[in-house]
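Progress note, sequence design subtask.
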């Protein structure tokens, strides 16, 4: 439930009373520096966790009000950020594309209409819309039929040339290829749901008597489904597209209904089948085959679909840590600035933006953070977080970040189950990041004195389960930070609630479908 201003005010009053009732502090503690020293003492205690003994930990905390560095350890060391990379991509996109930016998908005609016959090709042209659904392609097909067209003598041409032909990001792991969070990037794509998981479908299994029934969302015959699953006493099923193919193999046992999100191998080809099927449904027959090519110059527009504006897309993008959105926005920036919808062109835009705004050390290999060669320093992240506060688009950026303890998925996002019942709940706005051996949390928090802080927490190369509870403890301590009434905090009493999981594993919780944040 979203907090009302009244409940927030009540929460602030409770926090104020709690601080007022804390043990009296010595006169020397009235020195603002004492509060900073106590903060450093507590963060050092948190980072002394045995799980980090063999790991790398970089942490920076700064006042957003005056830039004062309140805490730093390994501030200038390059570390793997995982999805903290999206902080840079989102900021560059807001600056470069603008919050009103929309993706357009068009149906064009390269021929002449005679009666109900279109002599020539029908062209479907995309610009990368990650929010377009099968039903939107169906509406485009209905619009074509609404023009009185019943027969197309030429081909159905899929124009995905707004972006280049590189489908997978730099350095992405081969074993992520079939995972929906690493789906191929194309200027023509489709999402199966309103999380807007572009480039994927949902494969569903359910027990139907003695057999296992399989269905997909949307309905499609694009894949070859090989169903070897059996009905059993429990659901222990694997649904996976075979590497380099369109074959989805289903094995294991099924007792209860189960869904799996599966990346398509070629989004352009997949979308073409959806659109051709919808055309047929609406009585439009395309006589020629489906091909891929650029729309001819002068092709006439028959129908158009526009996405939501970027300021709305920011919510599913950042709250749910959507990798495909990050990569599409990266290529869209490259297309706008350099006329090239490529990773290299788009990453230059993001890097140039960061450097122009005071970020000193940055190595971006993709827009999402899936690459293990992405590298930032904790200082670099706080430099970015501080700089963008002055941007006119900052409110949309800030509100797109996951909010600790807010249970609504599109408010709390990947932090909705973390830090509940603590001073950080409803306060911390931050981006999470998770890969095997990598966890990060960076963003904004307001101290107990009302001072705005920026922070970056980057933990790498641990061998335990993801120590997200360490991030949470630091964030909670920052929410408790006071210059005027400092005291070393009892870290046990400020620990995250038991609903703050440290066992989501090696991936962002929103990537574990159904969403488990």
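Output:
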């Amino acid at each position: 439930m979203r907090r009302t201003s009244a409940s927030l005010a009540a929460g602030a009053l409770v926090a104020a009373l709690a601080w007022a009732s804390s043990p009296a502090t010595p006169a020397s503690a009235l020195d603002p520096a004492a509060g900073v020293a106590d903060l450093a003492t507590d963060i050092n205690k948190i980072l002394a966790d045995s799980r980090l003994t063999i790991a790398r930990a970089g942490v920076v905390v700064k006042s957003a009000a005056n830039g004062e560095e309140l805490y730093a350890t390994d501030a200038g060391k390059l570390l793997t950020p995982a999805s903290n990379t999206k902080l840079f991509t989102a900021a560059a996109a807001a600056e470069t594309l603008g919050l009103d930016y929309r993706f357009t998908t068009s149906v064009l005609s390269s021929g002449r209409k005679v009666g109900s016959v279109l002599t020539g090709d029908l062209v479907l042209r995309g610009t990368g819309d990650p929010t377009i659904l099968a039903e939107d392609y169906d509406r485009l097909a209905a619009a074509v039929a609404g023009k009185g067209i019943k027969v197309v003598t030429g081909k159905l041409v899929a124009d995905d040339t707004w972006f280049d032909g590189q489908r997978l990001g730099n350095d992405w792991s081969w074993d992520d290829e079939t995972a929906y969070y690493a789906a191929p990037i194309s200027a023509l794509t489709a999402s199966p749901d309103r999380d807007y998981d572009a480039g994927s479908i949902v494969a569903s299994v359910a027990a139907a008597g003695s057999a296992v029934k399989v269905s997909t969302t949307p309905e499609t015959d694009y894949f070859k489904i090989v169903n070897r699953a059996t009905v059993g006493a429990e659901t222990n099923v694997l649904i996976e597209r075979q590497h380099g193919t369109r074959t989805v193999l289903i094995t294991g046992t099924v007792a209860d209904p189960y869904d799996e999100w599966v990346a398509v191998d070629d989004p352009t080809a997949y979308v073409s089948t959806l659109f051709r099927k919808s055309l047929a449904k609406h009585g439009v027959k395309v006589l020629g085959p489906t091909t891929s090519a650029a729309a001819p110059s002068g092709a006439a527009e028959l129908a158009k679909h526009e996405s939501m504006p970027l300021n709305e897309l920011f919510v599913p993008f950042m709250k749910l840590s959507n990798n495909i959105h990050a990569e599409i926005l990266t290529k869209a920036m490259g297309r706008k600035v350099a006329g090239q919808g490529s990773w290299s062109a788009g990453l230059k835009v993001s890097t140039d933006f960061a450097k122009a705004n005071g970020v000193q050390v940055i190595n971006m290999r993709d827009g999402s953070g899936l690459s293990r060669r992405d590298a930032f320093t904790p200082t670099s992240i706080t430099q970015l977080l501080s700089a963008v506060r002055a941007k006119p688009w900052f409110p949309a950026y800030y509100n797109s970040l996951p909010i600790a303890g807010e249970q609504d998925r599109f408010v709390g996002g990947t932090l909705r189950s973390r830090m509940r019942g603590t001073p950080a709940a409803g306060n911390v706005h931050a981006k999470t990041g998770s890969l095997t051996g990598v966890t990060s949390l960076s963003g904004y928090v307001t101290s107990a004195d009302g001072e705005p802080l920026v922070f970056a927490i980057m933990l790498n190369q641990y061998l335990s389960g993801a120590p997200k509870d360490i991030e949470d403890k630091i964030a909670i301590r920052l929410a408790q930070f006071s210059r005027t009434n400092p005291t070393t905090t009892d870290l046990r009493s400020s620990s995250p609630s038991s609903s703050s999981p440290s066992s989501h594993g090696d991936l962002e919780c929103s990537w574990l479908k159904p969403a488990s944040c």
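Confidence is low (pLDDT under 50) at residues 1-29, 498-503. Work on this subtask will continue into the next period as scheduled.
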